[in-house]
Design brief:
This protein is of the alpha+beta class. The chain has a single domain, classed as Immunoglobulin-like, CATH 2.60.40. Helices cover 15% and strands 44% of the residues. The chain contains 2 helices and 8 strands, in the order ααββββββββ. The strands form 2 sheets. The chain has a 4-stranded mixed β-sheet with strand order 4-1-7-8, with no helix packed on it. A 4-stranded antiparallel β-sheet has the order 3-2-5-6, with no helix packed on it. The chain is elongated, with a radius of gyration of 20 Å.
């Protein structure tokens, strides 16, 4: 009897996601320019710039590394469970280089007029 009480206590104490995995989709959408840029997330190749890549990731900190013609740019990005973050960067080498990180508004936030 004491053993079944312990199992019941554990089930009530830990969230279901611990046993079943987190079902919320967490993604990082990368819009990198120019097309010659090699894109890596956590040291794994995602592809080349010039098109949008949507990368499914686990919640937590991730390293995005961009490499073009010997130039490397690296950023650490944090994602929460269920978050879908967009990240854009132009590694063109000109004066128009830019960095843009967009956090979509919360679903329960009032719509702006």
């Amino acid at each position: 009897m004491a053993r079944s009480g312990l199992v019941l206590t554990l089930l009530l104490t830990f969230p279901l996601s611990v046993f079943a995995g987190d079902t919320k989709k967490t993604t990082l959408k990368l819009d990198i320019k120019p097309a010659e840029v090699h894109i890596y997330v956590d040291d794994k190749s995602v592809g080349m710039g010039g098109k949008v890549h949507t990368v499914p990731l686990t919640p937590g900190r991730h390293t995005v590394k961009l490499v073009r013609k010997g130039v490397t740019h690296e950023e650490t990005i944090s994602l929460k469970a269920g978050e879908n973050k967009s990240w854009a960067f132009d590694l063109g080498g000109g004066k128009d280089d830019s960095l843009k990180i967009d956090d979509p508004p919360a679903e329960d936030a009032p719509a702006s007029e």
